[in-house]
Amino acid sequence: MNNQSARSDQAAPSANSLPPGSAPVLRKRAEEIEQKRSLDNIAALSPEEISLMLHELKVHQIELEIQNEELRRAQMELDASGARYVDFYNLAPVGYFTISEKGLIIEANLTAAIMLDVVRKTLTRQPMSRYIFKESLEIFYLHLNKIFETATPQMREMQMLKNDGTTFWAKMDGIVAQDADGAPVSRIVMSDISEIKRTEAMLKERENFLHVLLNAIASPVFFKDRAGLYQGCNRAFETFFGETREWLTGKDVFAINPPELAKISDAKDAELFSQGGTQQYEARVKNAQGQMRDVIFNKAVFEDSQGVISGLIGVVLDITARKQMEEKLDADRTHLEGIVEDKTREHREIISDLIEEISHRKRTENDLRESETRYRELFEKASEGIMLLSTKGEVITVNQSFAHLHGYGVEEFQHVPLTDLNVRLEPHVFAERMNSIMAGKSLTFEVEHRHKAGHTIFLEVTSSMVELNNERYLLNFHRDITEKRMLEERVRRNEHLASLGQISAGIAHEINNPNNIIMGNSELLRDVWHDADHVLSEYHAQQGDFLLGGAPFSEMRPKIDNMLKRIFNGSERINAIVNGMKQYTSRMNKGHTEKVAINDVVLAGVEMVREQIGKRTDAFSMDLGENLPLVNGNGRALEEVITNLVSNALQSLAVRTKRVSITTRHDQNKFVVCEVRDEGAGMTPEVLRQATNPFFTTKQNSGGMGLGLSISQSIINNHQGSIDFESRPGQGTVATVRLPVG
Question: 693-713 burial by CB neighbour count: b if 16+ within 10 A, else e?
Fold first, then answer.
């Protein structure tokens, strides 16, 4: 009503200010025409003039009717526009209030009434404070006073009170305005921010939890911004470096470390920021007590909502104790190597004396053979094998002993080429020997010949040149030294076993102590993890996934228990190996009555080198036979054999694409067979012959001691089985283990 009154009180606009076609202008023109042409003058007008005047009046009448129609149409559009404005006002997603200086509600839209859970018409003339929660009343009055005092837009957050007594959080944006009478009023927009407040509370709760979790981590943890300035740390970090989080915040690494150490850390931070991802490296730092500590830094960058790197988080792992242990182990290894070197020197002296004795004996035997060549009867009846060769290397004749050594008859040698007898005889070696003998020298050397049955025999050969009927020949005397070679091998192995017995006692003492610490702590860690798992799983279920050790908790949870189990099993394995080394020399007489499944042994052995497999090859496979019979044996010892064979196979690979495979089968001949095949570097015949000797190794530079295959062969011998190797340089190696069925 006030608005209508205000409009009616306004002065009508002058005709000069209106457009030519408007209704007031047409009316005025009609009045002017009427004044000029009064009825008194009509009689004086001609019919044409009267007709023209009537025409003009009709035209003005039509124009007035058109104008009236346009006015009606404009009024309808105004009414529709007003209705739309009312709809927009009432159905807006926020509440609108008009409030007087005294805090009374003058007007409110439908949304405001719905938000307060009241009927809209009951809001008018009500104090706004009635709908403000009591703890927010002071904020509301301050907000209202600021609007009227400053005449500037104001915003406050406060709790509103619904009609049913419940509350919600609202943001109140207000400005000053005037009503129709010119009185100051406040226009206020009310937005429901309850969900935002709940989200903020949840984020605060999560932040508190992460803060507690961070401080519960035993290792020092810190985080920096993009400029390399510390933004926070956990209690372990404060304790380690002796500085509080408040003091540290805003400082760089130079504040807590000497310049030479800080430069390294600062350069590593710059490298991580440029490359992204994660970073791990060893360094030295000074702790709160001024001690230099060896540590491993594990760092990772984090990004803002735009995917831009905004800082890094790091964990400091103190490895000083581990370093000290490694140094002690290095010293022990050096000591052991010194013992081995001393023993080797002693053995060389013994071997030198033995060689001298053998050389003397060979010279004596050579003299004897030269005299025996004069007598054909002695040739035929000689106990040593005698062979007469042409200078072209053709067999002229052999005696009965030579034929018997090789499993042939004398007549058969007329058709056996010399190349079929020799095993691994290089052509250039044969040529050098031939040239030396033809030059008048008498040579004594050892050869390997192939028996007719297929096995290898070892022979000592004394060769010299003789003349018969003005023709030169090579006269070779052959003595079977196969048994001697085997005896020498046993002697050498027994000497190594004696050395190993002494070394084993020292190793057991030095390794058992730290290994017992690992075993005890791994069990404790497993118990700690089981207790923590319930808390972390509950948090995961409520809050979603989070990082643990740099990886999502959902991925780490199923792995951690297995990791702890593998640590404990590995420690048990170390203990078993040490005990096995101490008992190595006594295993030959130890019985085995346990029934063992070879496939279980293979799986357990492979599990021990699972990490090494992942590092060395992408092509590892197993083909385990089904329903294999059990064998009598010691499962732990057989696992050690599998572990040694697979480890050697992996170490021989040059690239990750090369294959390592394990197969098991029953050969239907009372043996269960396990075969480990690799595509590695392979072995030369010389290396292959010494492969199972104690302390023989081709991996001195990588710390190999040469005990693995020697121990493995002893274990298999104890089980009444066999272990054989087939290998060629560049073509890989096949290790075949045969165990008798139990």
Answer: bbbbbbeeeeeebbbbbbbbb
Please answer whether residues 258 and 220 qualify as being in contact, where contact means their C-beta atoms are separated by less than 8 angstroms: no
State the amino acid at position 10 in one-letter form: Q
Q: Are 643 and 698 in contact (CB under 8 A)?
A: no
- Distance CA(718)–CA(587), nearest Å, equals 7
Using one digit for the tens of pLDDT, what is the confidence trace for 286-341?
A: 888 888 889 999 999 998 888 899 999 999 999 988 888 888 888 888 888 888 78
What is the strand order of the sheet 722-727 is part of?
A: 619-624, 659-666, 671-678, 733-740, 722-727
The helix/strand/coil state of 652 is coil
DSSP, res 289:
T
Helix (H) or strand (E) holding 271: helix 259-275
Count CB neighbours of 128 within 10 A.
22
635-670 residues labelled b (16+ CB within 10 A) or e (exposed): bbbbbbbbbbbbbbbbbbbeeeebbbbbbbbbeeee
Which range scores top for mean pLDDT: 282-286, 377-381, 695-699? Answer: 282-286
CA angle centred on 363, ends 358 and 367, rounded to 5°:
145
| 693 neighbors 710 (Cβ within 8 angstroms) | yes
Handedness of CA 319, 320, 322, 323 (dihedral sign): positive
Structure tokens at 346: 């002693």
Contact residues for 197 (Cβ-Cβ < 8 A; gap 6+): 169
d(CA 527, CA 534): 12
Report how far residue 569's alpha carbon sits from residue 586's, in angstroms, rounded to the nearest whole number: 25
Q: 157 has which bridge partners?
A: 171
Does residue 698 contact residue 704 with C-beta atoms inside 8 Å?
A: yes
User: What is the average per-residue pLDDT within 593-599?
Assistant: 85
Distance, in Å, from the CA atom of 441 to the CA atom of 32, rounded to the nearest integer, reads 160
To the nearest 10 degrees (0 to 180), the angle between helices 635-651 and 598-608 is: 50
Question: Which 8-state DSSP code applies to residue 311?
Answer: E
Euclidean distance between CA atoms 390 and 465, whole angstroms? 10
Strand runs (DSSP E) across 384-432, as ranges?
A: 385-390, 395-398
Q: Whole-angstrom Cα distance, residue 485 to residue 24?
A: 140
For 219, which DSSP code? S
Q: Rounded CA gap, 446 and 484, in Å?
A: 12
How many helices (H) and strands (E) the chain has is answered by 22, 24
Find the radius of gyration of the CA atoms of the chain: 52
**Residue 525 to residues 220, 430, 544, 564, 694: CA-CA distances in angstroms?**
18, 66, 25, 7, 38
Q: How far is CA 98 from CA 86, 149, 183, 605, in A?
A: 15, 17, 12, 82
DSSP character string of 87-105: HHHHH-SSEEEEEETTSBE
∠ CA 560-614-579 to the nearest 5 degrees? 75
Identity (one letter) of the amino acid at 181? D
Q: How far is CA 653 from the centre of its chain?
A: 23
Residues in the chain: 742
What does the alpha-carbon distance between residue 144 and residue 150 come to, in Å, rounded to a whole number? Answer: 10
Write down the pTM of the prediction: 0.33
